[in-house]
Amino acid sequence: MRRLRQGVAAVILAATMLLTGTAQPARAADGAADKVVDLALLAWNVYKAGAITPEQAVQFVRLLTGAISETENAVISHIDSIEAREVMGHLRSISYGMADYEAIRENEVWLAEYVRQTLSGYAGNAFEKYRGVSSVKAKDQIALAAQSIYPTLLTVATDAGMPAALARAEADYRELMGDIVKDLEPRCTYVQVHGSNPPHYLHECTAVNGEKSSKVFDTTQPSAADLYDLKAKAAKDSAWLAARRTLDGVGPGNGP
């Protein structure tokens, strides 16, 4: 009965969001960040509704699988530290535990224990590991994985009806994303294009994972929107873009 009432509430909230035009922010690049944001925003919808519908459970597992796969592809060739490897290992473990989630979610004992013993531990470990490493590349890899771990914790804790775990998880998740946006923003430089008259300038942005994006402008100070797009293209596989877009999508921290 609890799941039936919560499922009805979730359907009502989803319909209301469609009618009021709630949408994800515009995107400038495809990559791991896009998959992570899709996962995070669905998790937030579940969290706000206070329940997950069977359809959302299927969708969540699909999005989680995609986010994990893209995250692994983004970092596998240049994983930077033991700490990052540990957090990535936890992310892979989640992919095993959640593979049949839509079938086993009716086991409320399993749900509660999975939140208490597994997901809470993984999320807390990622939170602390992010603060404990000095390499920005390691921070980026840990943060990208954490942004799939925390939505999983929010979703399963919502399904298990565990408000205390949810309140702490939301607060830490928001704090972590705020730190990621502050710590891992791409760096941008420009040089004048040789021989250009009138002068044009090649602007280049570099994400903390080393990926770059460049574009020629006729000014040394492109608009904020143009500069954001350039940063987003460089950071398509970076935790910075995922955190920035997720925070833009979920808005102020007012709880469900």
Oligomer: single chain
Distance between the termini: 21 Å
**Helix fraction bin:** 55-70%
In total, the number of domains comes to 2
Enumerate how many helices there are, as a single number: 10
Mean pLDDT across every amino acid position? 86
| Biggest sheet features | 3 strands, antiparallel
Give the strand tally.
3
Keywords: Signal
Signal peptide: 1-28
Describe this entry's structure for a reader.
This protein folds into two domains: 30-183 and 235-248, no CATH class; 185-232. It contains ten helices and three strands. The protein has helices at 2-19, 32-49, 54-75, 82-97, 101-104, 108-132, 136-160, 163-183, 224-234, 239-250, and strands at residues 187-192, 201-206, 212-217. Strand 2 (201-206) and strand 3 (212-217) form a beta hairpin. Helix 3 (54-75) runs antiparallel to helix 7 (136-160) and helix 8 packs across helix 10. Residues 4-29 have low confidence and may be disordered.
